[in-house]
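User: Before I run my own analysis I want an independent prediction to cross-check against. Here's the chain; please return only the structure tokens and, at the end, one sentence I can use as a sanity check.
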Amino acid sequence: MALWKMESINPSLKLAMDIAKVFYATVEELFEFTDNE
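Assistant: Structure tokens:
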């Protein structure tokens, strides 16, 4: 991911990405996303 894009990422998404990196997994493998509409 480009460094200039990191500024626009939600802090909780950054945390999820960091956690995924620690476990050598993707964010999608670790977390379930649902549409809240």
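Sanity check: Residues 1-37 form one domain.
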